[in-house]
Amino acid sequence: MKVLMTVLLAVQMLSALGMIGLILIQHGKGADMGAAFGSGASGSLFGATGGANFLSRTTAVLAGVFFVCTLALAYFSNLRPTESGSVLERASVSVPAPAASAASGAAAQIPATPAAPAASAAAVPAVPATPASGAGQIPTK
Q: Which regions span the lipid bilayer (predicted)?
């Protein structure tokens, strides 16, 4: 399945690059008027009008290949099994517990203010193990 997805993606990218190149090569509608009055466009590889038909048909074929590849990639990407629920519910927040020596060393570096006594490791509020999600994130009055 993964090989098929890779091949489809490669074909889609090549058809997109081919379309970009062919669209940039094509002349606009005003360029045909100059070819009718003897401009240098008649000396091209395909003649005065042959190039427009060839390039436009090739662009149409590449566009069809691009759309088919896009639909196939969308179809095959929905076939993969996915976990139910939102991305926020699957995300887990893990906060490492501070070591006793690191907490006492960090607390010793913070100067105590007269208004608040020195903080101890037991005074730090505990972080909930599971993050609040969905309706738990909406503040209440």
A: 54-76
The answer to whether 35 touches 42, Cβ cutoff 8 Å, is yes
User: Number of C-alpha atoms within 13 angstroms, CB side, residue 38?
Assistant: 0
Based on the structure, what is the number of domains in the chain? 1
What is the chain's Cα-based Rg?
Answer: 33
Mean per-residue pLDDT pooled into runs of 10, the chain (141 residues) = 92 96 84 60 55 85 96 88 67 63 60 58 57 68 72
The rounded distance, in Å, linking the Cα atoms of 66 and 19 is 9
CA distances 88 to 4, 70, 94, Å, are: 31, 28, 14
